[in-house]
Amino acid sequence: MTITFKNSMTGKLEKFEPIDEDDVRIYVCGPTVYDRAHLGNARSAVVFDILFRLLRYTYGADHVTYVRNFTDVDDKINARAAETGKSITEITDETISWYMEDMNALNVLHPTHMPRATQYIGEMQKMIGALIAGGHAYASRGHVYFSVKSDPGYGRLSGRKHCENTEEIEQGVGKRDHEDFVLWKPSAADMPAWDSPWGAGRPGWHIECSAMSAKLLGSRFDIHGGGGDLMFPHHENEISQSCCASGINEMASVWMHNGMLTVEGGKMSKSAGNFTTVRDVLDRGYNGEAMRLVFLMSNYGKTLNWSFDKLDEARALLSRWREMTRDVEPGDVDVKILNALSQNLNTAGLMARLFEIEFLGEAPALKASLKLLGFLDQVTASSSLDLERHALHLASLREKAIRTGDYSIADQFRGALMKAGLEVRISGSRVDLAWDNRRPPYKLPEIEK
Predict the structure, then answer these.
(1) Is 93 exposed, middle or buried (0-12, 13-18, 19+ CB in 10 A)?
(2) How far is residue 207's CA from residue 257's CA, in Å, rounded to a whole number?
(3) Residue 72 · residue 118 · CB < 8 Å
(4) CB 135 within 8 A of CB 79
(5) Is the peptide bond before 233 cis (omega within 30 degrees of 0)?
(6) What is the predicted pLDDT for the residue at 449?
(7) Which pLDDT band, with edges at 50, 70 and 90, does 111 fall under?
(8) Quick one: which of 11, 58, 303, 402 has the most CB atoms within 10 Å?
(9) What's residue 380's pLDDT?
(10) CA 442, CA 436: separation in Å to the nearest integer?
(11) Are strands 261-263 and 252-258 parallel, antiparallel or unpaired?
(12) What is the largest CA-CA distance in the chain?
């Protein structure tokens, strides 16, 4: 099976040929851990989870090494700690646990390695020392900066040689050129700090991924991925640091970037009131598999417009497919599904083929294909478990109401379930609940203990 990916470095669709088929190596930039994972974080995680699954299927699960990092030293984390009164360790530990819960809900496989930046400070310092020794970086007033002009190849990924607006230019003291970027910086007394040859301080953002990928995957590896917003300056800076430190011309053979995510047609932001986290969606009664399916409705490199209508559509599809494949043994993964995945993760083509398989009634192939894509692995969705508990509680309230003649509490609870977006079906003493796909769900009512 021939696999092709669009390489962001060349802009071309290229045949994928691993450096070593016995150890296919991927690095993806993970989250900065100071807040809940938002839908953009989730899309990137799901996209590269699909890539991970394809490569595991093709080369064998034991022959793919996937690294996705946590940035746990950053000014945003420091600000959140000051805002909440929690320690930096409390903030990062809590946020990482939230992130893992969300990824589990989305059925994202755990990467081979999930390094935290603070575990690799020594490797960062060694790389910075090598850059200084090679004339690519310089120390100045407690800072260390990378000299952009020292790398003639700077701009090889994005096509940009220079920062184009003042927001992209890192502020700093003692810089020789305004476009140089920081590798190491001093810390205030209340900030995290590590001893270094340049004084107590902490690393810049860009050096983290260069050091972690080199340590875990080697100086050159197969695929580097991340969101399209990271292409410049983060990935551009990574390439320069890594190549100048190692003396080789290529950091990764293939660069892959997922597109942006908009919400209901607008850019997601807190100021616009449409900033949505994975937890927000789960709390409205949807499960992670439905979110996962929405992310596959658009090719990974394109902008995805998220909407709750799409989420309702995805939930209905999964319910239908789950019913069709219930008690069916998986067959072989459909060849056309594999072909679509192998052609630059063509998820739009993949979705069309899933509909065809359903229409043809090929339940074993449908089940095998969905499981490869990360669906149907959760025997019962978490929301279904909630529905069962709520149905039993309503049945109990109705039994009590029949005995006492007072239906007020049972009717109030039934009304709350309907307000949450459920259909309530009562037959004798039996209560059945189902999501009403015509209405967006809201948080289920609490059940008194």
Answers:
(1) middle
(2) 19
(3) yes
(4) no
(5) yes
(6) 53
(7) very high
(8) 58
(9) 34
(10) 11
(11) unpaired
(12) 86
- pLDDT number for residue 425: 83
The DSSP string of 277-298 is BHHHHHHTT--HHHHHHHHTSS
Percentage of the chain modeled with pLDDT above 90: 70
**By the 8 A CB rule, do 424 and 418 touch?**
yes
Measured between alpha carbons, how far is 12 from 407 in angstroms, rounded to an integer? 67
385 pLDDT exceeds 80? no
Instruction: Please say whether the beta carbons of 217 and 25 come within 8 A.
Output: yes
For the record, the structure tokens of 381 come out as 């969705």
Across the beta sheet with 181-186, the strand order is 137-140, 143-146, 181-186, 201-203
Q: Which of 352, 258, 287, 228 is nearest to 48 (CA)?
A: 258
CA gap 321, 200 in Å, rounded: 57
Taking the CA atoms of 296, 302, 306 and 310 in sequence, report the sign of the dihedral they define: negative
d(CA 170, CA 226): 21
Contacts of 409-415 with C-beta under 8 Å, sequence gap 24+, read: 413/445
Average of per-residue pLDDT across 181-192: 91
Residue, of 78 and 430, whose pLDDT is higher: 78
Tens of pLDDT along 417-448?
A: 888 777 888 877 778 787 665 555 566 788 86
Could you tell me if 353 and 337 are in contact, meaning their C-beta atoms sit under 8 angstroms apart? yes
Q: Pick from 352, 431, 432: which is nearest to 397 by CA? A: 431
Q: Which contiguous run of DSSP H or E holds residue 315?
A: helix 308-325
Q: How far apart are CA 232 and CA 440, in angstroms?
A: 38
What are the start-end ranges of the E strands in 195-271? 201-203, 221-227, 252-258, 261-263, 266-267
For 116, the 3-state DSSP assignment is: strand
Instruction: Using only the alpha carbons of the chain, give its radius of gyration.
Output: 25
Q: Looking up tokens 């090929």, which residue turns up?
A: 362
Q: Which two tokens stand for residue 306?
A: 């998220």
**Predicted structure pTM score:** 0.83
Question: Is the distance from CB of 345 to CB of 47 less than 8 angstroms?
Answer: yes
The pLDDT mean for the chain works out to 90
- Retrieve residue 441's tokens: 């769900």
Residues 241 and 210: beta-carbon distance below 8 Å = yes
Exposed, middle or buried, 364 (CB in 10 Å: 0-12/13-18/19+)?
middle
Q: CA of 3: how far to CAs of 8, 51, 85, 246, in Å?
A: 16, 11, 50, 29
